[in-house]
Specification:
Strand order of the largest sheet: 1-2
Distance between the termini: 116 Å
Helix content: over 70%
Number of strands: 2
CATH architecture of one domain: Up-down Bundle
CATH class of one domain: Mainly Alpha
Number of helices: 10
């Protein structure tokens, strides 16, 4: 079946990647050299060479990540191999069986990348990469389990591998959500504009929400979500309080009162702590009371001259 063989996944080749990168670099150098010569550059080889070197450095730095992902995906995709002894008499369909060797190799690849992600200097994205690999592995093994084309011993190996990968998936997804949301929250705290603070903090919430879809009962995740929501509410409260103070300074007392009421609205968010809510509400209501007193005083001052007699000004 040449068609089936043509569709099978090819083993990733590091050598092939390097050859393609080098050939691309040479072609890039020649193209840049030709363009610079045409434009009259006196030393066309210098900028062309610098750009080509940068291109090669980027390609080589990306090689490890790309090849690691390609190799792991190859192992996962080939964890189900065609069993030629079980083809139908018509040759149009074939059953698939489980390969212990490739299953173990895929597990080792995931565990190796998991160990690399757990070093202190690793970025949150490294944990997310492992979580994605775990999802691919679990999807592949679920397909095998549904097919039922394996012995009892292989079934035990499958389920054992799934348990280990489930644990790794949870471990890395939770670490990614925690570290990425912390980094974004820290970034949000140091933004100058309120809108930028809220936008960045919402990105942190999205990270946590994506993990909560898989693990909704995680206490730490829910606590982090509440804390970030409280931070967003506090930013909105501070924003409206600042606007209210500006309006009051300009003598726009009614507008200041309206803006203080907007601040009260966000202060009543359920994510805001009770003691913070009580203290903030008390302060804002006190300011609103002062503004209403000023409004009354201003109104009385405006109405005062109308009560005087025409000759009273003499």
């Amino acid at each position: 079946m040449s068609g089936a063989r043509g569709r099978s996944a090819k083993m990733p080749s590091s050598t092939g990647y390097l050859v393609i990168a080098i050939v691309s670099a040479v072609l890039l150098f020649l193209l840049l050299w030709w363009i610079l010569v045409s434009s009259g550059d006196e030393a066309p080889w210098l900028p062309a060479g610098l750009i080509t070197v940068v291109f090669l450095l980027v390609a080589l730095s990306a090689r490890e990540v790309l090849m690691r992902r390609a190799w792991t995906r190859y192992l996962l995709e080939n964890g189900i191999k065609p069993d030629s002894s079980k083809r139908s008499s018509h040759g149009g369909s074939q059953k698939k069986t489980f390969s212990v060797t490739l299953h173990s190799a895929a597990l080792r690849a995931i565990q190796k990348q998991s160990a690399a992600a757990d070093i202190p200097s690793a970025s949150p994205d490294a944990h997310l990469d492992v979580a994605f690999l775990c999802q691919d592995f679990l999807a592949s093994t679920d397909e095998v389990l549904r097919s039922g084309n394996f012995s009892s011993e292989k079934g035990i190996a499958l389920k054992s591998g799934q348990e280990r990968v489930h644990a790794l998936h949870k471990h890395h997804l939770l670490i990614w959500a925690r570290d990425q949301s912390r980094a974004l929250t820290y970034e949000a705290q140091h933004k100058a504009r309120a809108s930028d603070k809220i936008e960045t903090a919402n990105k942190a919430l999205e990270c946590i929400d994506s993990a909560l879809v898989m693990y909704p009962n995680e206490i730490e995740l829910n606590e982090s979500k509440t804390a970030i929501a409280g931070f967003i509410a506090s930013v909105r409260v501070a924003h409206w309080v600042e606007l209210a103070e500006r309006s009051a300074f300009k003598g726009q007392y009614r507008r200041a009162i309206d803006r203080y009421k907007d601040a009260l609205f966000y202060l009543n968010d359920e994510a805001v702590k009770a003691d913070v809510k009580a203290a903030g509400t008390q302060r804002i209501e006190r300011e609103i009371g002062k503004l209403r007193d000023r409004l009354r005083a201003k109104s009385e001052a405006d109405e005062g001259p109308n009560d005087e007699t025409p000759g009273g000004a003499s």
